[in-house]
Design the sequence.
C-alpha cells in the first residue's frame, strides 16, 4: 500500500526522461506534488512504482528574461512567482493567481508546471497563463518543442503529457510593454473544496481610450481552461464602456459552457459571476494599463 | 541520503512511499510534528525546509537530500519536557504567556509557520500574519490570541526586550484572591510549545501492532457474507476478528447500548462507518492491505436519509423499537390560550446542517495487555486514549472484553480537541479486542477520512417556531416542533435533543410554552455531543424568530429581547424559578452599548461601504443561555483527591478530562488558592482510572463547577486535616493555623508545608484528602422545579459585510458578553470565548457535513471547511460576572455558551444588510445572491 517504491531526484532533463522510460513499473513525473501525491495517497490515481522528481533540475528552476521573453521554469515554486519583481512587472495576473493557490506552505512547494500538468479547467495559475498568451516548452526523448498552452489540454485532468511522455520545461511569456497590463480575480465559497466557483484573468493593451489588444481566460467554463476568443473580438478596438461590456458579457455567456457542480455552484450562479468578474478584471487591467509604465 | 534536522546531520535512506512527517515521527522520534489530516489541509505538520515552511505530511522524505530541516524541537535553546519558559524562543514564550495554547495539537505548526514569517518579516502587520497563517488551522480557534502572540514575539525579537504580557483584564473579584481571577498560563503550555507534549499517536510500545477497521461503506444493509481468510493468511497479519466469537457484550453505547462492536453475518448495517472486521498487523500498511482482502457482501436496504422520513409510517425500521429514539416534550401553561392573547403570531421553519467537530487530532487508541501487578494472575488491559469520559470507556471496554471493570485501566492522554466528539467509543474497544487476542500492544489510529466517517456529529435539525406576542412586544406563547437526526445509533442523542428542546423558546419568559421534539434514528452517521449540545441549533431558530418578530412589531430587536429576557425570579419553560445568577440583562446592555459605540445610532440599518457601492454592512444581535451540568435529575458528581508532598508541592487528581478547554489550569489554581501556594507548586493528574477518582463525563460545561468544587473541597478537607494536626501539636485552636506562601503558620511558628507531611505520616495519617462532590439535585423534565442548578447567559452582536455582486459574506466584528458567574482564569476564558465564537462563525458560514442518501460526501478535511485565521473578525470579549452561590468562587460553565449566539447574530446581521432571512445553515452565498 505504499504510494511509490522508488523516488528519483533527477539532476537533469535527460536523466528525468531516461528514468521515466527505464522505470520497472509505472512511472510518473512529479514536481511539487501537492495534488499528485494526495491523489496517490487517497487512491485517486493509478499506483506508481517510480516517481521522477524534477524539482532539482536547474533549468526548470530558472526564472529570467531570455530572448525577449519571460521564461518561467516549470518547477519554480509558486512563492517565487509571487515574490519576484520580474513576474510582477510582466505578468501581474500570474502573481495574483499564484498568490491565491493554497497557503504559504503549499506555495513553497507547488509549481506552475504542476498547476498546468494537472490540467484542471479552473486552475488559477493556468487561467492566468492563458490570458498572458503563454507558450509551453516540452522536452521529450526526441527533443524539444514549443506550443501554445491551450494545445496541452485534452480534457479535465488530462493533458498530452501523459501520452507523449514529455516533460514540461517551462513557460514563455511575452514581456509587458507600456500600455499593457493584466489582472486576475476569483470567487470562492466558504464551504467545501477550495476550488474556485469561477476565476477569470484578462490582459489588455490600451491605445488611448480603446482596447488595442485583449485576452481573456475563464474557468471552469468547459473541459479545459477557456480562452474567450469571441469575447475578445467583441472588445477589440472598443472603448471599455458599459455598452461594450454588456456585449462582451453576452458574448462570454455565448461561448463559455458553465456547468453546475454539486455542492459548489449552479451554472446560473457562474453565468452571473462571469459578468461580475469580467467587468471587475477588465476594469482593473484597464486601470493598470493606463499607467505609463506597467507595473 | 544526507540531511540535517535541527542542526544534527543524518545519513538515512528514504523508505518507499515515505513522507517527511513519517521520517521525523517514526524514525527520528521527533513527534512534536503532528499529523492532523494527512492531506495537506490543516498545517499541523508544518516544518521548515531550508527556512521555508512546508507540509511534511505530503512532502516526500526523499526530497530532503542535502537540506536543512527545522522542527518544533529545534526551536528552543533548551528543548524537551524540562524546558523553562525563559529557555524558549520568544514565539514559544508568547504563545504560553498570551494563552494561545489550548489543546496544543496545532501549536507546533502555528509556531513553525509564524517563525518562518518572522524570519523574512520582523514586523508583520495583522494582514500579513493572517496571510501567512491562512492554512494553519486551529480548531480551538484561538486565532486572535495567536495573532497577538506573534506580534508580541515579533516585538521581543526586534527589540531584544522581554515578550510583552497579554492585556486581558483580571476578574472583578481578583482582589479577594491570590490566584483565582488572575491570569494563569496552562500547566502543560510549555510542553505543548516545545513539541515535548505527547498525544496518543506519539506513543510507541515494544512489539506494538497496528490495527485497521473494515467499515461497511454502505448505509443500510444486511451483512450476507464475510470472508476474512485471505486477510488472515497475509504475512504480517497477527489477527483478524469479526463479530463471530466476541468475548463479551456485542454492543456499546454511552446511554443506550445499541451500537454493535462489529456487525455480524445476518445482522443489520445502519451506517457507512459500521465495523464488520478488525485487523492487527505488524505494520499499518499490512493492516490496510489486509482490509482489501476481506470480502463482505451485503443485501442492500432502502436508506432512511432524514428524520422526517424516519418518522413516516412506511419508513424501514432501523432498531427493534422503531425509529423514534425519544419524543421529548416541554409544557408550560396552555399555548392555545397564549396565541389567543397575541396581537401577532409568526411561524417559520429553520434547518440546520450536520456538522463535524474536526478536532485536529484524529482518534487514536492503544491497548496494551499487562500482567496484574497485584498478583492475581490476571491479565489487565491498559488503554491509552484521549477520551472525554475515561470511566465510561473503562466500563464499555471491560464489557466488550468480557472482563470485570477493575481489569481495565484507561490512561487518558492529551487530547487534540474534543468538543464533545470524544465522548463515545471510537477505537478503544477494537484495539482492546485485538490486544486481548494477540497478547500484544495494539495501536488503532483513525486517519482523517475515517474520523469524518465514523464519529458522532452535531444533529441536523428541522425546527418550526411559532411565537405569539402582544403589540408592545411581550411574548404570550412560544411553540416549537423539532426533528433531530440522531443517525444510526443513540449516542447522546436523547440528551442533546432534550437540551435543544428545553432551550428552544430562548432565554425568555413566555407565559405559555410548548415544545415537541422527535429524536429519530436514520442511516446517517450517528449524532451526539457537540459543543452547544443541541442549543446551538434551537438558538439559531428562536433568535432568528425574535428578529422577525421585532420587525413585524416595528420594535428594536434588542429592546424586544430585553423586555422578555429571563431575570432573577423568572420561570423558565420547564417550570424552574431562577433564584440567582441571571446576568442576561447585563450581557444585553453591555453588548448593546459597545455596538452603538462602534456603529453609531443605526446599527441595524444597512450601510454602503464608501467607495464600494456593492458592499453593504450591518449589525445583528442575538442572545443565548446554556445549562451548566447534566441536570434533568441525573446525579451529577465528581471526585477529586489532593495530596501534599514532602517537597511542599501538591497534586490534584481526578479523572475529568482535559481536551484543551483549560480544566487543568482551573484545578491547579483552585488548589493553589486554597493552600496559598504558587500555582506552579501544584501538579494536576487527570484521566487515569487507576490513579484518579471518577470526575464524571466532561460534557455539559460542567467541569469547572463540578470537579472544580470537588478539588476545592478536597483541598479544604486536606487543609483542615493539617490544621487539626498542627493545632494539636502546638496546642492552639485550628482556626489559628494559616497557610501563607507555601508555609503553614501557627502563631509565631512557620512550617514549610513539606514538614507537615512528615508530621502527618508520623501520626499515621496520609497527607491527602479525597472528596466526592455532589452538585445540587435537579428534577427530570416534566416535573417542574429546578431542572438545572445553574445557567450561563450570553449576548452577541455581529457586524457583517455582504458583497451584493457575488453573495459573499464576511464577518467584520463580534462583540460577545458572557455571564460566567466568575472568571476563574481570564486568560483561559479569553481562549474559550474567541474559539467558541469562531466555532459559531463556522456553523454559520463554512461548515456543512454533507451526507447524500447515507453516503458521506464530506469525507476529507478538504471537503469540510472549518474557519481559518483569514475569516477571523475582531472579537471583543466582555466578561459579566453574576456569581452562582454554589459554584466554585461563584463560577459556572462557559465552554458551550460562548459559541451559541454567534450564528444567529451573524444571520440576523445578514438580514439587516441585505434583507435575506437565513433559515437554512450554513449561509449559501449563491442563494443569498439570488434573493437580492
Sequence:
Amino acid at each position: 500500500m505504499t504510494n511509490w517504491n522508488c523516488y528519483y531526484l533527477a539532476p537533469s532533463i535527460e536523466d528525468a526522461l531516461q528514468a521515466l522510460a527505464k522505470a520497472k513499473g509505472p512511472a510518473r513525473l512529479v514536481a511539487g506534488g501537492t495534488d499528485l501525491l494526495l491523489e496517490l495517497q487517497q487512491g485517486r490515481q493509478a499506483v506508481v512504482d517510480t516517481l521522477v522528481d524534477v524539482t532539482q533540475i536547474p533549468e526548470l528552476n530558472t526564472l529570467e528574461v531570455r530572448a525577449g521573453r519571460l521564461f518561467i521554469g516549470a518547477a519554480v515554486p509558486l512563492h517565487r512567482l509571487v515574490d519576484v519583481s520580474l513576474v510582477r512587472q510582466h505578468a501581474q495576473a500570474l502573481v495574483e493567481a499564484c498568490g491565491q493557490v493554497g497557503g504559504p506552505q503549499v506555495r513553497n512547494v507547488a509549481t506552475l508546471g504542476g498547476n498546468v500538468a494537472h490540467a484542471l479547467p479552473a486552475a488559477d495559475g493556468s487561467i492566468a497563463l492563458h490570458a498572458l498568451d503563454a507558450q509551453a516548452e516540452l522536452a521529450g526523448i526526441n527533443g524539444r518543442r514549443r506550443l501554445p498552452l491551450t494545445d496541452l489540454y485534452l480534457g479535465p485532468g488530462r493533458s498530452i503529457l501523459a501520452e507523449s511522455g514529455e516533460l514540461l520545461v517551462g513557460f514563455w511569456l511575452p514581456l509587458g510593454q507600456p500600455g499593457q497590463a493584466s489582472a486576475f480575480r476569483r470567487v470562492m465559497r466558504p464551504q467545501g473544496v477550495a476550488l474556485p466557483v469561477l476565476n477569470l484573468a484578462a490582459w489588455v493593451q490600451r491605445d488611448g481610450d480603446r482596447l488595442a489588444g485583449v485576452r481573456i481566460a475563464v474557468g471552469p467554463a468547459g473541459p479545459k481552461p477557456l480562452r474567450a476568443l469571441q469575447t475578445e473580438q467583441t472588445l477589440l478596438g472598443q472603448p471599455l464602456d458599459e455598452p461594450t461590456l454588456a456585449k462582451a458579457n453576452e458574448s462570454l455567456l455565448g461561448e463559455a459552457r458553465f456547468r453546475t457542480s454539486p455542492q459548489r455552484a449552479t451554472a446560473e450562479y457562474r453565468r452571473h459571476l462571469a459578468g461580475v468578474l469580467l467587468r471587475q478584471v477588465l476594469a482593473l487591467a484597464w486601470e493598470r494599463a493606463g499607467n505609463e509604465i506597467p507595473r | 541520503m544526507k540531511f540535517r534536522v535541527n542542526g544534527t546531520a543524518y545519513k538515512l535512506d528514504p523508505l518507499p512511499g515515505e513522507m517527511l512527517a513519517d521520517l521525523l515521527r517514526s524514525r527520528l522520534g521527533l513527534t512534536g510534528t503532528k499529523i492532523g489530516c494527512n492531506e495537506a489541509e490543516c498545517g499541523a505538520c508544518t516544518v521548515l525546509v531550508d527556512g521555508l515552511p512546508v507540509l511534511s505530511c505530503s512532502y516526500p522524505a526523499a526530497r530532503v537530500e542535502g537540506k536543512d530541516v527545522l522542527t518544533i524541537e529545534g526551536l528552543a535553546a533548551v528543548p524537551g519536557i524540562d524546558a523553562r519558559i525563559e529557555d524558549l524562543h520568544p514565539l514559544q514564550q508568547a504563545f504560553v504567556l498570551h494563552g494561545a495554547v489550548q489543546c496544543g495539537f496545532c501549536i507546533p505548526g502555528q509556531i513553525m509557520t509564524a517563525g518562518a514569517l518572522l524570519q523574512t518579516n520582523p514586523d508583520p502587520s495583522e494582514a500579513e500574519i493572517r496571510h501567512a497563517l491562512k492554512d494553519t488551522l486551529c480548531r480551538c480557534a484561538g486565532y486572535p490570541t495567536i495573532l497577538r502572540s506573534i506580534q508580541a514575539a515579533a516585538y521581543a525579537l526586534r527589540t531584544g526586550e522581554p515578550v510583552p504580557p497579554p492585556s486581558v483584564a483580571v476578574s472583578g473579584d481578583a482582589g479577594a484572591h491570590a490566584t483565582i481571577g488572575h491570569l494563569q498560563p496552562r500547566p502543560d503550555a510549555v510542553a505543548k510549545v516545545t513539541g515535548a507534549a505527547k498525544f496518543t499517536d506519539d506513543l510507541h510500545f515494544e512489539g506494538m501492532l497496528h490495527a485497521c477497521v473494515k467499515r461497511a461503506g454502505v448505509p443500510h444493509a444486511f451483512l450476507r457474507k464475510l470472508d476474512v481468510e485471505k486477510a488472515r493468511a497475509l504475512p504480517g497479519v497477527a489477527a483478524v476478528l469479526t463479530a463471530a466469537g466476541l468475548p463479551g457484550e456485542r454492543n456499546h453505547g454511552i446511554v443506550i447500548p445499541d451500537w454493535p462492536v462489529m456487525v455480524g453475518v445476518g445482522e443489520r448495517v445502519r451506517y457507512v462507518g459500521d465495523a464488520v472486521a478488525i485487523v492487527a498487523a505488524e505494520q499499518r500498511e499490512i493492516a490496510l492491505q489486509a482490509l482489501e482482502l476481506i470480502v463482505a457482501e451485503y443485501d442492500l436496504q432502502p436508506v432512511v436519509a432524514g428524520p422526517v422520513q424516519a418518522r413516516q409510517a412506511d419508513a424501514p425500521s432501523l432498531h427493534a423499537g422503531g425509529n423514534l429514539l425519544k419524543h421529548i416534550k416541554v409544557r408550560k401553561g396552555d399555548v392555545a390560550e397564549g396565541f389567543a392573547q397575541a396581537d401577532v403570531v409568526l411561524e417559520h421553519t429553520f434547518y440546520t446542517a450536520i456538522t463535524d467537530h474536526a478536532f485536529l487530532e484524529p482518534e487514536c487508541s492503544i491497548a496494551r495487555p499487562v500482567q496484574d501487578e497485584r498478583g492475581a494472575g490476571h491479565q489487565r488491559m491498559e488503554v491509552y486514549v484521549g477520551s472525554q469520559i475515561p470511566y465510561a470507556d473503562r466500563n464499555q471496554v471491560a464489557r466488550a472484553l468480557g472482563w470485570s471493570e477493575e481489569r481495565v485501566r484507561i490512561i487518558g492522554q492529551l487530547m487534540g480537541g474534543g468538543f464533545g466528539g470524544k465522548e463515545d467509543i471510537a477505537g478503544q474497544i477494537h484495539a482492546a479486542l485485538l490486544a486481548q487476542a494477540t497478547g500484544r500492544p495494539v495501536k488503532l489510529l483513525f486517519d482523517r477520512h475515517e474520523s469524518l466517517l465514523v464519529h458522532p456529529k452535531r444533529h441536523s435539525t428541522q425546527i418550526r417556531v411559532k411565537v405569539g406576542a402582544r403589540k408592545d412586544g411581550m411574548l404570550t406563547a412560544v411553540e416549537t416542533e423539532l426533528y433531530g437526526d440522531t443517525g444510526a445509533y443513540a449516542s447522546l442523542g436523547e440528551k442533546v435533543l432534550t437540551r435543544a428542546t428545553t432551550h428552544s423558546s430562548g432565554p425568555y419568559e413566555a407565559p405559555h410554552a410548548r415544545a415537541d421534539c422527535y429524536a429519530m434514528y436514520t442511516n446517517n452517521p450517528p449524532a451526539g455531543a457537540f459543543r452547544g449540545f443541541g442549543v446551538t441549533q434551537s438558538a439559531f431558530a428562536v433568535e432568528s424568530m425574535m428578529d422577525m418578530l421585532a420587525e413585524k412589531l416595528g420594535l428594536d430587536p434588542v429592546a424586544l429581547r430585553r423586555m422578555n429576557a429571563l431575570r432573577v425570579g423568572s420561570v423558565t419553560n420547564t417550570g424552574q424559578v431562577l433564584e440567582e445568577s441571571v446576568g442576561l440583562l447585563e450581557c444585553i446592555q453591555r453588548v448593546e452599548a459597545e455596538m452603538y459605540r462602534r456603529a453609531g445610532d443605526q446599527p441595524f440599518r444597512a450601510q454602503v461601504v464608501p467607495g464600494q457601492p456593492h458592499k453593504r454592512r450591518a449589525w445583528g444581535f442575538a442572545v443565548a443561555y446554556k445549562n451548566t451540568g447534566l441536570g434533568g435529575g441525573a446525579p451529577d458528581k465528581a471526585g477529586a483527591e489532593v495530596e501534599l508532598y514532602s517537597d511542599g508541592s501538591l497534586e490534584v487528581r481526578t479523572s475529568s478530562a482535559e481536551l484543551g478547554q483549560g480544566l487543568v489550569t482551573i484545578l491547579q489554581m483552585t488548589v493553589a488558592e486554597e493552600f496559598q501556594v504558587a500555582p506552579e507548586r501544584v501538579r494536576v493528574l487527570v484521566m487515569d482510572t487507576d490513579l484518579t477518582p471518577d470526575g464524571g463525563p466532561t460534557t455539559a460545561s460542567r467541569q469547572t463547577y463540578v470537579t472544580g468544587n470537588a478539588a476545592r473541597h478536597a483541598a479544604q478537607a486536606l487543609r483542615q486535616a493539617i490544621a487539626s494536626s498542627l493545632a494539636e501539636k502546638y496546642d492552639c485552636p485550628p482556626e489559628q493555623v494559616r497557610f501563607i506562601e507555601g508555609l503553614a503558620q501557627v502563631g509565631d511558628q512557620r512550617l514549610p508545608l513539606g514538614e507537615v507531611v512528615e508530621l502527618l505520616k508520623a501520626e499515621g495519617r496520609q497527607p491527602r484528602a479525597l472528596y466526592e462532590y455532589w452538585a445540587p439535585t435537579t428534577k427530570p423534565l416534566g416535573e417542574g422545579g429546578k431542572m438545572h442548578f445553574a445557567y450561563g447567559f450570553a449576548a452577541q452582536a455581529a457586524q457583517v459585510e455582504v458583497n451584493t455582486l457575488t453573495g459573499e459574506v464576511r464577518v467584520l466584528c463580534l462583540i460577545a458578553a458572557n455571564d460566567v458567574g466568575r472568571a476563574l482564569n481570564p486568560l483561559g476564558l479569553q481562549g474559550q470565548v474567541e474559539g467558541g465564537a469562531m466555532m459559531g462563525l463556522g456553523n454559520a458560514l463554512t461548515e456543512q457535513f454533507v451526507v447524500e442518501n447515507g453516503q458521506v460526501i464530506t469525507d476529507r478535511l478538504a471537503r469540510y471547511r472549518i474557519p481559518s485565521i483569514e475569516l477571523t473578525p475582531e472579537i471583543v470579549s466582555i466578561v459579566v460576572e453574576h456569581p452562582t452561590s454554589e459554584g466554585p468562587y461563584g463560577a459556572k460553565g462557559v465552554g458551550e455558551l460562548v459559541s451559541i449566539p454567534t450564528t444567529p447574530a451573524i444571520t440576523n446581521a445578514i438580514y439587516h444588510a441585505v434583507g435575506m432571512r437565513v433559515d437554512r445553515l450554513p449561509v449559501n452565498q449563491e442563494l443569498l445572491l439570488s434573493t437580492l
